[in-house]
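Write out this protein's structure.
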Amino acid sequence: RNALKAHDDNGCSPDVALSNYCWFLIEHRKYGEIIQLTNQVLESIESKAIKTKHEELILLQHCVALEGNKQFQEAFQKLNGYLKAGIEDVEVKVKMLLHTTYHLTAISPDKDEAFSHSEQLLSIALQFKNILDDTLVCRSLNNVMFTSLEFDDLGKAEHVMNFLSKFYHSDAYATATLGLLYLKKNQVDKAVSLYDEAVSLVTDQKMKKRIRQRMNLELGIHYQQADDLKQATRYLKRAIDNRLGYEYVSNQAQELIRMIR
């Protein structure tokens, strides 16, 4: 199948057809196929001074596929390069910033760079909150709050919390991040209660597992910092999940256990 000749039954342009097909493949986790398809048009799109929304989406989808293929650093470098070169579509720009901010927070932590990307994300999300889809606004604000908490900036996290308030108790990720805020404030019971609520808000078993995995990691870190190494080890062991969990969370938990020993 040649991506350059892709058309759907309605005769739409190749970039629209390819972009739509890539979303379908992402949903089914066919990352290798996405990379193969988008590689056929990547150089051509990257060389254009002015790109269509769907061409910018293809750039994003290529990077999402790289992440799905565990090529995290390559995905980040490309996304960062696209953002620096300039992305015109607001929705695509926000989605790219979501990925780069998370990478700089959780995958390859870099406080200054993470804050730089999260500030851009916050600014755009608030400026265009009446235009962007509510779900995307929620994800953006939650991403900023999560970054603030991971780097222990509780003041900024509480500031962003006010903008997220309408999403608590309905959005799983916002609710889990609120739980992290309470954990950072040493209110463990409240934190665990919110994480449990977040788990109840999703139906996908994989996501339930991953929310609990992050909760166990954060509890492990909390108890390690409190010098309760027995409890820390207990929760960190629970955070190690090689089947449904995040690989980077498992790796971080294993590293922390080695440090305790």
